[in-house]
Amino acid sequence: MLAGSPDADEAWAAVRRRDRAFDGRFVTGVLSTGIYCRPSCAARHPRRENVRFFADGAAARASGLRPCLRCRPDEVARDVAAVAGAIAAIKAAPGPLALQALAAEAGYSPAHFQRLFTRATGLSPAAYARALRAERAREALSEAGEVTGALYEAGFESPSRFYEALGGRLGMAPSVWARGGAAKGQQVRIEWAVVETSLGPMLVAATDKGVCRLSFAEGPQDLARRFPHAELAPGGEAFAALLGRVVAAVERPHAPHDIPLDVRGTAFQERVWAELRKIPPGETRSYAQIAAAAGAPKAVRAAGSANGANHVAVLIPCHRVVRSDGTPGGYAHGTAIKQELLRRERS
Fold it and tell me: pLDDT at residue 94 above 80?
């Protein structure tokens, strides 16, 4: 493999599953036909012994190969530039930008550009803009603690749009979020319990919206440090029913569940968490694969940080992410628990 490309086994696995997230990271050279393709090319897979991987089309052409006329691998750079230009425009714009305008600037039809942008980032242009504004608003609230200034700084045209976009995602009124849950009359109530499981003592905490913390070997004192301004209380009858569902999900991590969550993150963190929930039970993905699936193939370290920022172990299955060489890698609750969760899922 050439520098800048994934290792051969990872590249071949991406080709076998026609993974669009790897388009632009390398090209597949087929020596028996003399062509090179995108990893996601829909043509019939070549024999492995006839395949070589190149960092880009220029390297493949230097080896005497020509681009595939079906998948047009050399157009990936244009696609990447188009998405990058749209992201820059969205970040710089004082307000929402129309899809038609973004597509016209890139030289694509609106429908095609929508698909292209969504495939690259995991979000439509409109959803990306909303997530960006929400992230900016959270940062402004945390720094300033004053709602009126924060909403205009984040690019919202009016308070109503601000509350509509952020109320549910923050899990509390924005003014309460700015004060760490300490506003009079609106203090966030978090119920909790520590319960014995086959993996050891487990702390579960939840707001009225859903589970906000699931961890092992932690107690109420740890919860108080994480939520210093919230009202913490032992779980009641309604919480006990939720707790039972959580315990079942942990004891049987391969089984599907619909447990409500109240977790918050940046736009990128939430894209990573969404990708974690797509990993089938018993399977694993590398940090590089998660970064690529989240629309930022070069942000492997950031994907690892987002993985570590997951506050609800098992429910968002960060234990399914391993190093590229297949070794377990880190886990906030210890590699023994991580390996046991994977063992249960596989068996």
Answer: no
37: annotated active-site residue: yes
User: Which of 41, 71, 212, 318 is flagged as catalytic?
Assistant: 318
List strands edge to edge, sheet with 200-206.
211-216, 200-206, 189-197, 231-234
Closest CA to 87 of 109, 110, 106: 106
CA-based torsion, 228, 233, 234, 236: positive or negative: negative
Neighbours of 332 (CB within 10 A): 16
pLDDT at residue 195 greater than cutoff 90? yes
212 catalytic per annotation:
no
Average pLDDT in the chain: 82
Beta strand 200-206 pairing with 321-322: unpaired
Interval 228-250 mean pLDDT: 90
Instruction: Give the span between the Cα atoms of 23 and 180, in whole angstroms.
Output: 42
The H or E element spanning position 272 is: helix 267-278
Of all residues in the chain, the percent with pLDDT exceeding 90 is 36
Helix (H, G, I), strand (E, B) or coil at 122: coil
- At position 318, the amino acid (one-letter code) is C
Catalytic annotation, pick one of 37, 41, 71, 212: 37
pTM for the structure as a whole: 0.52
If you write DSSP's letter for every residue of 14-80 in order, what string do you get?
Answer: HHHTT-GGGBTTBEEEETTTTEEE-TT--SPPPPGGGEEEESSHHHHHHTT-EE-TTT-GGGHHHHH
List of residues 6+ apart from 71 with CB closer than 8 A: 37, 38, 40, 41, 42, 43
Q: Which of 90, 341, 127, 89 is nearest to 214 (CA)?
A: 341
Q: Which of 3, 11, 4 is nearest to 52 (CA)?
A: 11
How many angstroms separate the CA atoms of 241 and 184, rounded?
Answer: 29
Radius of gyration over every alpha carbon of the chain, rounded to an integer in angstroms: 23
Q: Please, where are the H alpha helices in 171-236?
A: 174-178, 220-226
